[in-house]
Amino acid sequence: MKPASFEYHDPTTLAEALELMARYGEQARPLAGGQSLVPLMNFRLLRPAHLIDLNGIGELNYLTPAPDGLRIGANTRQRVLERGAEIERRWPLLRDAAGLMGPVQVRNRGTLGGSLAHAFPSAELPIVMATLGASMTLRKRTGRRTVRAGDFFLSAMATALEPDELLTEIEIPALPTNCGWSYQEVSRRHGDFALAGAASVVALDNSGAIIHARLTLTGSTPLRAHAAEPMLLGERPSESLFKNAAARAAENLEADSDLHASAEYRRHACKVLAGRALLQAAGRAAALIQGGLS
Amino acid sequence: MPYIGSSVKRKEDLRLLRGIGKYVGDIYRHGMAHAAVLRSPHAHARIVQIDTADARKLPGVIGVLTAADMPTLKTIPMRTGLIPGLERSQQTPIATDTVRYVGDPVAVLVAENRYIAEDALEAIEIGYAALDAVIDARQSMRPGAPQLHAAVPNNVAASFQVNVGDVETSFSQCDLIIEERFSTQRHAAVPLENRGLVAEWDEGRGLLTVWGPTKMTHTNWRILSELIDLPQSSIRFIEPDVGGGFGARGEFYPEDFLIPFAARHFRRPICWIEDRSENLKALNQSRQQDYRVKIGVKNDGTIAAMDAEILFDMGGYTRTHGGVPAIAASAMLRGPLRLKNYRAQVHCVLTNKTPVGTYRSPGRYEANFVRERLVDMIARRLRLDPAAVRRKNLIRRDEMPYDLGKHPFHYMVYDTGDFIAQLDRALERFGYGQYRALAATAKREGRALGIGIGCFVETSGIGPWEYARVEIDNAGKVVLYSGCNSLGQGIATALSQIVADELQCSIDDVRVVHGDTGTVPFGNGSNASRSTVMAGSAALGASRKVKDKLLQLASAHLEIAAGDLLLQDGRVAARGAPERALSFADLARLALPGPALKIGIKPGISEEDFFATDKRPFPYGVHVAAVEVDKETGTIKILDYLVTEDVGRKINPMIIEGQMAGGLAQGIGGALLEEFVYSEDGQPLSTNFMDYLLPTAMEMPRAQLISTEEFPSPHNPLGVKGAGEGGITAAGAALANAVSDALGVEVTKLPLKPDYVLELVRKSSSER
Amino acid sequence: MSTRQICVTVNGRQYSGAVEPRRLLTDFLRDDLGLTGTHVGCEHGVCGACTVVFNGEPVRACLLFAVQANGASIKTIEGLAPNPDELHPLQEKFWQLHGLQCGFCTPGILLTAEALLKEIPHPSQDQIREWISGNLCRCTGYLNIISAIEEAAKVLRANNP
Question: What percent of chain B stands above pLDDT 70?
Fold first, then answer.
């Protein structure tokens, strides 16, 4: 399965890359980790006439923490996300999700930007970004714009990126203190494309009531539980509360049938995982508070 | 210390560990070109027109071949499993006017490299007139279904019946009759190395050399000779290192004709290595069977009669051994049960899918699933313990040898064994009682934990004969030329152990040559767990003859009676006077024509032997599984697993246990993960490794693998039973039984996908 | 068809050549450099038979173009053993404990295991399984591979206290 021919470009600066994107537009594909793109090229399902290799652009590779959040360069490898001390400390949800993305060989090359731009329906990083309320910086030769996670994923494998744009940075806001988290997924084998996934963060106040709750499920695009989240505020964690919220969250979930599972299964599994994610996140939040008090 | 019985490190390993093995893809010939096969994108169509002009013009393209370039195309013959009728649906190596599955070869393109070849494939224009396709065996048999082969009116490629005892009378005397339908899904061997060949035609000498053939080297050598019209003496097959076979690699495929043909036609050595997307469409598939079974039982749990209708999905053509799963399943459906009344009506049905062949434990993996599920169903209906029902019905040791009654195509006499003792051992070592208690606790807590048993008898060591030649060279090294093949299973090590023990030399001084028709004149290959039995016995026979020759030579030169000589450490020495000795190297020198002819001894140290048998040894054993089912997501976690197998006699215990572990992983894949799915119009949907799911290290549970050697087989001088398939054969059975036990609902099909398991969970809660 | 000149260090030795941009790293290593120990099992990044160490990390060579390896340092299976007369402890243990059968997956698994033991000198069984979950083996059922890695880890820890 050899790919079709292409012209290869290896810019060393972002400016060069954007120039190439502007010049070649629809005929070009940016190459980041290649873990999703190159298989498609080897199958000849994609045949870009121009391949723009972003791997030489050092300026897209950074993790810059700040009190109000974290700015991540799009070229940051998934393995860096899963091992970053700052991420482990402040956004363990991201660390967990990055570790589920596939085996180590894939995580060594796969990038945050690449995964988000590919927008595969059951992928981990998109629903984590939606849960964390991330924003994406999209740049083209002539300018830049910021798009919130909720507006970035348009449909299965389609994002707000225009043909001449590159995703350059992802900004993750800080989470409330003592925020519990959970990433739940079901797949046929460990590390496969998930059949269903749920990402959640929950924070409690000192009396044990929920003061912050975010939940996203894997639909054809990340499905943020905008209707279910408010149901949780002010309530005490309980299985029945979370089951109801999960049912609400999964209500309008769009899912596909394929040889691995039916759409109905995926919706059902998302609902189950949503409940489990909320439960585990709340449990961790409670433990963090206890830990803080002791 | 004898080598036999010892877990000697494998001789094959050093080169493989260092990455200097030579698989067919590693073979480079000067001037080598590369082939790519154009395959039908339609499941069923007439070829209306082929236009290769544009493809041939592309730079780097050497040429394109279609059926028009092959005037004397014959169908690829069957080598075994010759159920009458199957000969009507065989395949020509390239499509002539009709394609019958997605993947059917239509053209062969040769170019300077594979990149260009794939580019050029896209430039070949083929006009097809699509025909209706049928992908379900039952539908395929119905009147009005699209007909695949003119000579096969109702798509039933062959049918036959097995009839033992009197099922009707027996049913009338039973207290309980259970009728059920079962199905197992299409899946296959899928070894990690894709198929490949390198063919080179030496025009000057008229010699065709082909690297890559394996499994049935000599059979395929003969087949190619007939198809390509070259005498065998002008063809040489050479077996390289091979990346696994499991039944699918090494049968005679279309490419086994096309690539050598192309090499002769274009007068360039040609390398063809299929890629994975081809492999998943073109490699023999297997396991798709549909059963309707009726089983009759007495109230005390005695199983009295079984009547089965079995449909085998054959795919678009009959391959070299496509009848084997049907024969094996119908022969072994009763497994280790004492069942004197048995009838099976078997239909091999053509469908517009990839043709079918064997996959490790063919027919038995499926049949064990069906039978062991029925045994558990009986247990549940009669409120008996599943182990107790088995004890009651397993053939007893004192009933051996046990004749199962006539089967038109399969040997049916179990040789030796104690099935009940093996079951007891399995349950004891597994901790069956403790797991039952755990399951009860789990149930009280609302969790679903279950245990499943799968008893099996495997067939192995098939004849009819095998060849060996043992020689000693000038340096005193021993060379065994064996008619078997290596697909990675370690046969060269096992055979070296046998030879080294017989000749009392170091295993490091034994080399095994196999798969090379230039130096091995006869062979029946490696399949059906036959090699240790057959090649081992032949190697033993040839070694004994060499031993006699060594003694004869030593006796003549030392002037000591042969009876006073013995073999020891690579020498022949006088008993009690070890300094009076001749090394193998000395003896090889004395066997040179000059000195040997002088004293009237036949020159050389080279002895051949054929081991022939029409009987088979039957290894047997038990699988036990404990699983927990997540009732909300339908996912299954295997908590614990055990396989025991009696193999008669162990040559290399480590290799045997390795076979069990590898088989088990595959068995788990078959039960939970692997499936070739097709769309309604015959489009294969499982054409990459994200869709066809092989088990990874994460899916393999901890497992106890226990091989025993309590009941040697009387059918070969080693007493060995073949150990290649016991690890896989009852995995579907045990896991399906465990899930049924966990949920209290009967599993009737494989694979146990989350969708299906959730369906069972819902059924289970609605039945409460 | 334009080619690019690349210069790559493989197993400590420098190689250079002209390659088409689309030429996969697997084909460059195997056919251009003659290092056939890196195997091709799927060409879509799932089976792991093509695993090489690329700038210190195990990666799938079938998902890299040779042009991307310009200036890189690669280790293939041929570079694992310290010298032609010695084996790496992983190779020793795989041999002793029957961690291979057909050998096709073995180079990829050995290199992945080497990287694991460099990062986690005392891995748990779960960690071993997770690390090799991207390397398919169809023959062994993985159990002996896991044991071999555990035993090799002991040897390496003893050699590097």
Answer: 100
| Residue A190's pLDDT band (cuts 50, 70, 90) | confident
Which residues in C lie closer than 8 A to residue A2 (C-beta atoms)?
22, 24, 27, 43
Which structure tokens are listed for B60? 């780097």
Closest residue of chain A to C52, computed from CA coordinates: A105
Q: What tokens appear for B68 in the block? A: 């028009």
Q: How confident is the model over B431-440, as pLDDT tens digits?
A: 999 999 999 9
Kindly list the residues of chain B whose beta carbon comes within 8 Å of any beta carbon in chain A. Answer: 114-115, 118-119, 275-277, 632-635, 672-673, 675, 677, 685-686, 688, 690-691, 693, 695-696, 698-699, 753-755, 758
Residue A1 domain-assigned (yes or no)? no
Average pLDDT over residues B350-361: 98
Query: Measured between CB atoms, does A186 come within 8 Å of chain B?
Result: yes
Indicate whether A103 belongs to any domain: yes
A254 and A158 assigned to the same domain: no
What are the backbone angles phi and psi of residue B197, rounded to the nearest 5°? -150, 145
Q: Count up the domains in chain A and report the number.
A: 3
- Does any domain span residue C84? no
Average pLDDT score over residue span B67-82: 96
Domains and CATH numbers, chain B: 13-131+194-243+249-282 (3.90.1170.50), 133-184+284-394 (3.30.365.10), 413-458+617-768 (3.30.365.10), 465-612 (3.30.365.10)
User: What confidence tens digit (pLDDT) does each residue in A206-259 have?
Assistant: 999 999 999 999 999 999 999 999 999 999 999 999 999 999 999 989 999 999
- Find the domain containing C60 and state its range: 4-79
Please give the pLDDT value at position B725.
Answer: 97
pTM of the model: 0.98
Which structural domain range is residue A247 located in? Answer: 182-293
Q: Record the tokens describing residue A139, joined without a space.
A: 């740049």
Asked if A192 reaches chain B (Cβ–Cβ under 8 Å), the answer is yes
Same domain, C122 and C150: yes
Which of A172, A197, A222 finishes a domain? A172
Q: At A147, which CATH number? A: 3.30.465.10
Write the DSSP symbol of residue B241.
B
Q: What is the 3-state secondary structure (H, E, C) of C39-102?
A: CCCCCCCCCCCCEEEECCEEEEHHHCEHHHHCCCEEECHHHCCCECCECCHHHHHHHHCCCCCC
B355 near B317, Cβ under 8 Å?
yes
Are C37 and C75 within one domain? yes
Q: Is residue A177 part of a domain?
A: no
B114-165 tens-digit pLDDT: 999 999 999 999 999 999 999 999 999 999 999 999 999 999 999 999 999 9
Of B244, B190, B188, B193, nearest to B215 by C-alpha is: B244
If asked whether residues C154 and C126 sit together in one domain, one would say yes
CA distance, residue C1 to nearest chain A CA (Å): 8
- Residue C108 shares a structural domain with residue C151: yes
CA distance B124 to B122: 6
ipTM of this complex: 0.98
Total length of chain A: 294
At B172 the pLDDT is 98
Query: Are residues A33 and A118 part of one domain?
Result: no
Torsion of CA B223, B227, B233, B239, to 10 degrees: -50
Q: What is the pLDDT of residues B172-188, one digit of tens each?
A: 999 999 999 999 999 99
pLDDT band at residue B765 under the 50/70/90 scheme: confident
Chain A: give the shortest CA distance to residue C133, in Å.
6
